[in-house]
Amino acid sequence: MSAPRPPRIRLASASPRRRDLLAGIDVDVEVRPVDIDETPFPGEVAEAYVTRLAREKALAGHSSGGMPTLGADTVVVRDGEILGKPLDAAHAAAMLRSLAGRSHEVMTAVTVVGPAGVLVSAVRSRVTLRDIEAAEIDAYWLTGEPADKAGGYAIQGRGAIFVTHLDGSYSAVVGLPLCETADLLSRQGVPLWNHPVS
């Protein structure tokens, strides 16, 4: 049995979804969650908010001379309003009702801190949900899936049955835009292939 490979980056997040997405492109991580205040500033627009949080997470998790550190954040935006994680079942139901039968934005920002400095990318995607019956919303909450998801649903899980259209990056909606992330990691000198690319 071969020895485990050393991590290539530090992931400043406890999100299993981000860890799994990075594993999917063969990037081993050291998970080092950080605790920062995620309260939006007064009047802060969604892109500024999500970019600020991704940057703060990466900087909080990075140590001088250490491996590159990745921070990311995802928000659901409806009519300019930032929808975070639901506080309880009633809050989750209200959010899902407000998203049903229409389109909304999902914005994910990623920051990688390393030898090349602080590199940031933000990605917007547009998701359309079908109409959702009240009984479905209640049943969905009981699965436990919406409890820690921005907007109260997960496109990579049972929530996919509500999604009729996606315009943008699927991985960004899940929590990490892999195309943009791979570019930032490459610019920080993180190898993405086991063999050199000529």
Structure description:
With 198 residues, the chain is an alpha/beta fold. The protein has one domain (9-187): Maf protein. Helices cover 30% and strands 25% of the residues. Strands 1, 2, 3, 4, 5, 6 and 7 form a seven-stranded mixed β-sheet that branches. The longest helix has 16 residues, at 46-61. The radius of gyration is 17 Å and the shape is globular. The mean pLDDT is 93.
* CATH 2nd-level architecture: Alpha-Beta Complex
Number of helices: 6
Question: Rounded to an integer, what's the Rg over CA atoms?
Answer: 17 Å
In helices, the fraction of residues equals: 25-40%
Gross geometry = globular
Poorly predicted sequence stretches spanning 5 or more consecutive residues: none
Q: Tell me the strand percentage band.
A: 15-25%
Q: Major sheet: size, sense and barrel closure? A: 7 strands, mixed
Structural class: alpha/beta
State the order of secondary-structure elements, H for helix, E for strand. EHEHEEHEEHEHH
Q: Tell me how many strands there are.
A: 7
CATH topology: Maf protein
CATH class assignment: Alpha Beta
Mean pLDDT: 93
Please indicate the count of domains. Answer: 1
